[in-house]
Design brief:
There is one protein chain. It contains 24 helices and three strands. With 467 residues, the protein is mainly α. It has a three-stranded antiparallel β-sheet. Strand 2 and strand 3 form a beta hairpin. The longest helix is centred in the last third of the chain and has 33 residues.
């Protein structure tokens, strides 16, 4: 065991440290973290409507008096959803451009604005839709068609103008979760163009007497214009060559394949395992893998959320495993399911040092904060707890994945504050599903069984050392 740990410290740790300090990955991570208020408020709006509208409609039937009374609040939550989840991609673009530009010590506000403009440049602004003509009788259909209009009757007998087109629209599929990969790729490249031109002083220089705010704005004009025009040209080339906009191509060739790969049980277990492995060597595993967990699994969560918001059906959700699934089922007390370790220590440990640390850590462990355990027990570089630390979370992932994949519990589709206690998190994140909370508690029990023999082993190690 010591030989393995020494080898990992020599060969694995330097690579991991470089990854942890890579500024582009840090900017992606911080970009997602910064938009958490927007993500959270949108999820709260959906969660409230679950209790104001969705569950009452299931319990009491559609159109019941409670839902009618809650109608104003339901509409308010709909407005909040439209101003948060629907434009989440745009919010992330600004945040990413800001953090990336800031890491290079150039004007971060300009970086965010330029990234936003570049991403919008990539998007299809032409909309084709059907428009229902209010108050027009079906008898007028022949008159409309003879006038050259593409008028048809829908199933309800309404006159509909089919194939109405217009310019200047941005679809929710582009501004929300569906556009996140475009926001990430175009936002990062455009920001880097701006940064490199700023570093090379390709700017408009004003006299020193000009106020800094004005001077900084003028300095960003040329780099910003080049970055935005770059994506204007790329967009036109894509349309001419393929008939598709960059966002469509990114969704087709990058986003969907990555999301598909992320949904395999092997991918889920691997991510859970790597988070634990990094933590064992003192690196913040969740932060280190945030570009993956946030960049890949957050769009999956938001896609599920959009489906629920439009259909109120969990059967139609496209993704089994999302960002919140890790927190709901594999983080009982924090990384490594350390709440189970604390329970095992309280019951079986004879070591006064570990019991003292467990007493201090328990209140925080209930709310998923476990740094006192990781560095106090310690877990870091502790060969006794190496095996349970690595396997508890992946095994819990397999259990929760199986329950979700077989349709016993719904996928996680609501983002909940990560400090929510075990069981309650899963209940809220699945829109009030009681079985999901029971699966989370089952995982806590499984993790307890994994940790228990190693706590007993730690007692014996102390006894031998005492001899």
């Amino acid at each position: 065991m010591n030989a393995f740990i020494n080898w990992m410290e020599l060969h694995f740790m330097p690579i991991a440290a470089k990854i942890a300090n890579q500024r582009h990955l840090i900017a992606i991570r911080d970009g997602f973290i910064a938009i958490m208020p927007v993500t959270m408020v949108g999820s709260i709006a959906v969660l409230l409507n679950v209790f104001f509208r969705d569950l009452p409609n299931q319990w009491f039937g559609a159109g019941n008096s409670f839902v009618s009374a809650m109608s104003p609040l339901i509409s308010i939550n709909g407005n909040v959803y439209f101003g948060s989840i629907v434009i989440l991609g745009m919010a992330f673009t600004i945040s990413l451009g800001y953090h990336l530009a800031k890491s290079y010590d150039v004007n971060p506000i300009a970086g965010g604005v330029i990234a936003f403009s570049s991403v919008v440049t990539c998007m299809n602004q032409n909309a084709v839709f059907d428009y229902t003509l209010p108050g027009v009788d079906a008898s007028s259909l022949d008159v409309l068609t003879s006038a050259g209009l593409n008028a048809v009757l829908d199933d309800a007998g309404n006159v509909v103008l089919s194939g109405v087109s217009g310019w200047g629209y941005m679809s929710q599929a582009l501004t929300g979760a569906g556009g996140l990969f475009t926001c990430l790729i175009a936002g990062m490249i455009s920001t880097m163009i701006y940064v490199k031109l700023m570093q090379k002083k390709v700017t408009i220089k004003l006299p020193a007497s000009v106020p800094p705010a004005v001077s900084n704005a003028f300095a960003s004009i040329i780099p910003g214009a080049i970055a935005i025009y770059t994506f204007g040209i790329i967009t036109q080339l894509c349309v001419m060559a393929t008939g598709l906009y960059p966002n469509d191509l990114i969704i087709k060739w990058i986003q969907r394949p990555l999301l598909g790969l992320s949904q395999g049980i092997f991918s889920v277990v691997l991510v859970s395992f790597l988070i634990q492995l990094f933590w064992f060597f003192g690196l913040h595993g969740s932060n280190l893998l945030a570009p993956i967990t946030e960049g890949v699994y957050t769009p999956a969560l938001l896609s599920n959320l959009e489906v629920w918001n439009s259909t109120q059906s969990v059967q139609d959700m496209p993704y089994v495993w999302t960002r919140g699934s890790f927190d709901a089922y594999t983080m009982a007390g924090g990384s490594g399911c350390t709440l189970a370790l604390l329970i095992a220590i309280f019951i079986f440990s004879k070591r006064d040092d570990q019991k003292a640390i467990a007493k201090l850590s328990a209140p925080m462990g209930i709310f998923q904060i476990n740094e006192p355990v990781i560095f106090g027990i310690p877990i870091v570089l502790n060969p006794i707890y190496f095996i349970p630390w690595l396997i508890a979370a992946p095994i819990c992932s397999v259990i929760a994945y199986a329950f979700t994949a077989f349709g016993v519990i719904p996928p996680v589709f609501i983002q909940v504050p990560w400090v929510m206690p075990i069981g309650i998190y899963a209940f809220l994140a699945t829109g009030g599903n009681l079985l999901a909370s029971l699966v989370a508690l089952l995982n806590l029990g499984v993790a307890f069984c994994i940790w228990m023999p190693f706590v007993i082993l730690a007692n014996r190690v102390q006894e031998k050392e005492g001899l």
